[in-house]
Amino acid sequence: SLFPQYKRYSNQQAVNATKMYQELAEKHDLSLAHLALAFVNLQPFVTSNIIGATSLTQLKSNIDSAGLALSEAVLSDIEAVHTAYPNPAP
């Protein structure tokens, strides 16, 4: 409620997409953060992946994602979710 401009991230479509990505991460024994950060790191146009952490545990987890390689199965599952929800927070 402090930032009404971000309300679009809590619409039903965005919530459903997030749930699907969470299920995908669990299916492949990944945390949601590892899934997201490793996917961002794969993008050829990304020169820097900015992370945020509120604890040393989160920071270590985020840093550990830098060496994570996503399998073709994971990438295929990500594409399936993206196809179902191409723009979940318009």
Structural overview:
The protein has 90 residues and is an all-alpha fold. It is 54% helix and 0% strand. The chain is globular and about 35 Å long. The relative contact order is 0.19. The protein is built from four helices and no strands. The longest helix has 16 residues, at 12-27. The model has no long low-confidence stretch (mean pLDDT 93). Helix 1 packs antiparallel against helix 4 (72-84).
Report the strand count.
Answer: 0
Q: What order do the helices and strands follow?
A: HHHH
Residue runs with pLDDT of under 50 for 5 or more positions: none
Mean pLDDT: 93
- Relative strand content: under 5%
Question: What general outline do the C-alpha atoms trace?
Answer: globular
The gyration radius over C-alpha positions equals: 14 Å
Number of helices: 4
Largest sheet: none
- Rounded to the nearest angstrom, the distance between the terminal CA atoms is 18 Å
